[in-house]
Structures
1.
Amino acid sequence: MKRLAVYIDGFNLYHAIDDLRQPHLKWLDLWALAETLAHPRETVAAVHYFSAFPTWRKKTFARHREYVKALESRGVTVHLASFKKKPRQCFACGATWTDHEEKETDVHVAVQLVADALTNAFDRAILISADSDLAPAIRKVREVAPRKAILVAAPPGRFTHARDLEPKLEITRGRVVKCLLPERIEADGKTVATRPANYTPPKD
C-alpha cells in the first residue's frame, strides 16, 4: 500500500468554511477528510494540522482547544504556532489599538512537508491550503524528492485564490458534510472532547 500524508493549513481552511455561513461544518474530522482523498491502494499514514490558539478570545480559544483535543483523539498530529501582538494606528484620526498577527504557521507547514519528503514519510502528499507563501515548499519537495507525488487541494471556494499553488481539486461543501465529528469523542470509556454548542448542526 502507498502512504498518503495530508497537511492542513488550519486557519486557511477555517476561514473558507466560515464563509459558508454554516458553523457546524467547522467540527470537521480531518482524518476522515483525508481518507476521502486517498486512492484505492493508499492508506492514510499521517494527517498534520497547523494552527495557533487565539488566547485573548476566551470563547474562541475554548472552542479551538476542544477541537484540537478531538483531532488528536482521531490520530491527527497538531502543530501549534502563536499570535504576536501588533500595535495599530488609524492615520486618519490617530487612534491606536493592539491587534494580533499569526506567526510561523506557514513556516511550520513548509518545514514539515520538506522534512517528511526527505525522510521518506510518505509516497504522496496533499496540501490543503490556498496560501501562495507555501509555493516554495512545494517546489523544493519536487526538487529534492522528485519521486514523491504532491498536489494541492484548495479549501471550499478557494480554488481561484490558490492558483499560484496550481491546485488539482477543491474541497467541496458536500465532502465536508460527510466528514463531521460526532457530538462526543470518547476514548477508553471517557469523553475526551465535546462539540461546542456553536457547532450544533441545524435541525432538519
2.
Amino acid sequence: MALGIAGKLRNPDEVRLAMESGIDFVMLGRAAILHHDFPLQMQADNNFTPVRNPVSTDYLRKEGLGEAFITYMSGWKGFVG
C-alpha cells in the first residue's frame, strides 16, 4: 500500500521534508492551483519560490482556472485579491 499526505504543502522545502519522512507521494492543493506545473518547476529549479497569496484573477486565469472556479476561489479569505 502506498502512503501519501496532503495539507499545507505550499513550497518545495515543505514537499521535500514530507518526502524525506518516508511517504510515497504528496498531494498538492493550493500549491497546484497557484502553479499548475509546481512539480516541474520544483524539479527544474532548486530555488523555485511559489507566489504568495493573494493573487489576482488574471493570474489564476493564466494558470488555467475557469471562471466558475475563480469565482469559488474568490470566496477563500486572502486567496484572491
